[in-house]
From TrEMBL:
Residues 187-203 have a biased composition (Basic and acidic residues). The keyword S-adenosyl-L-methionine does not apply. This is Bromo adjacent homology (BAH) domain. GO terms for molecular function: chromatin binding; zinc ion binding. InterPro entries: BAH_dom, Zinc_finger_PHD-type_CS, Znf_PHD, Znf_PHD-finger. Keywords: Metal-binding, Zinc, Zinc-finger. Residues 124-175 form the PHD-type domain. Residues 176-186 have a biased composition (Polar residues). Residues 204-213 have a biased composition (Basic residues). Residues 6-122 form the BAH domain. The keyword Membrane does not apply. The lineage of its organism: Eukaryota, Viridiplantae, Streptophyta, Embryophyta, Tracheophyta.
Amino acid sequence: MIGCCFVVKDGDAVLMRSSEPGKPSYVARVEAIETDARGSHAKVRVRWYYRPEESIGGRRQFHGAKEVFLSDHFDFQSADTIEGKCKVHSFSSYTKLDSVGNDDFFCRFEYNSATGAFDPDRVAVFCKCEMPYNPDDLMVQCEECSEWFHPSCIGTTIEEAKKLDNFYCEECSPQQQNLHNSNSTSKNRDAKVNGKRSLEVTKSKIKHTKRPG
Ligand SMILES: [Zn+2]
Ligand SMILES: [Zn+2]
């Protein structure tokens, strides 16, 4: 199917015009394209990506600005509402992008639009604040225990953190170990970091979001 300046095929991620003026475009995955006998009036079967604010639990601190959830919500839409193509990256490939464009998104959860449940329903947490990783937030890694920290949670700024060549967290820094005369071994710390620290991401707050169709 050919638009004004882009070609859309099954499996592509697309931006679709919102039915409410002023709202950001919807993100969807094209599942199938249907045209009538004359090749006009194309309809597309789409699978919606939800933005965090459209989910039952709402946007949470660890959700990235470009995060979307692959929902179980399918629809038929007129092909005219397609504004253009976009890219929905995996979480890890998104974090490796050199620069994030307007049409770059990432998805790490599938979302059940009826129950508000996420798959996976738990996600690893980091830092003293025990939050999942938000790729928009800079984090620094401890050279010793490999744990990740937010600059603000370790009493520094993003600018200062960017200048750090080596970072040792409170527990691993040599000064701190001398102070405490270290009675905890590094083995214990490894267990803590690699252990199943995670956050349950499915929250059931009732909030309904309207979708077109
Ligand atoms: Zn933190
Ligand atoms: Zn450490």
